[in-house]
Amino acid sequence: MATSHFYPVGTPGQPWGDDERTQWRQRQIVQRSHARDVVEVLQDLPGTLEVVQYGELETGPDRYPLLAVVSRDWDEALPTALVTGGVHGYETSGVHGALQFLQQHAGDYSGRLNLVVVPCVCPWGYERIQRWNHDAVDPNRSFRNGGLIVESAALMNWIDAQGVKPLVHLDLHETTDSDAHEFDPALASRDGKAWVPETIPDGFYVIGNSENPEHAFQKALIAAVEPITHIAPADSQGHLVGLPLQSHGVVWGESRSIGACAGFTDARFATTTEVYPDSPRTNAAECNAAQVAAVRAGLDFALAAR
């Protein structure tokens, strides 16, 4: 094991304490606005949709409304779809793909299913282009035991209180080069472990819940996205992010057991989408469009299969 440290915060082999978390937090700089990019956009949606505040995030002087968009004409006889973005705030197309879906396509599902769309689960991370929350906790490992942090607990409690039982849940993510040079080293440092570099897949892929993978559902998303952006090939071991490839662009991963957002409901059809925005073969607009295509394909598949 290398003895030199690989991250500016922490001591090799020692998990972080409060001092290290404070040092890490002081390195995080606001780079964009949740109020402008998300809150303002949500004020101009089709009349079939309603914006509701399900909680508030307070981090020092910063206060963020936690917002969801729901179908105004909610019908208990219809199935429900849950779409979440920005669980990792730095994953831009998850947030903007969810917003684009609301603006351009949500109306197509009026009278067919009930929509619940949460475009930005973690606004503090969105503003700082950061994977973790204010306390250096990964939100996508926190959707268990009623929610381990405010961001997960507020959403889980609200979903439960509303009696939302989604048929389908699409959680929109990205895999980026910053995973390799920032977030993975930070994770190893935080936990006092050795940093083992990983290969970042070049392209779009999906992670189906290994507890209930629904292979045909996952393949339908890949088929819808492939005309828009390239699909990630497997590495030399036949894996994507360390998981065995099941079919073109599809892997299985634990969701509920690790506290991932895609696993906190009993949705029959659930997935985590992963876009690769740093590829020279794509751009931000295509990444947003890929997320939208995946959402539409997931909703259409679930409606046809129920």
Automatic annotation (TrEMBL):
Residues 28-306 form the Peptidase M14 domain. InterPro entries: Peptidase_M14. CDD domains: M14_REP34-like. Belongs to the peptidase M14 family. This is M14 family metallocarboxypeptidase. The lineage of its organism: Bacteria, Pseudomonadati, Pseudomonadota, Gammaproteobacteria, Lysobacterales.
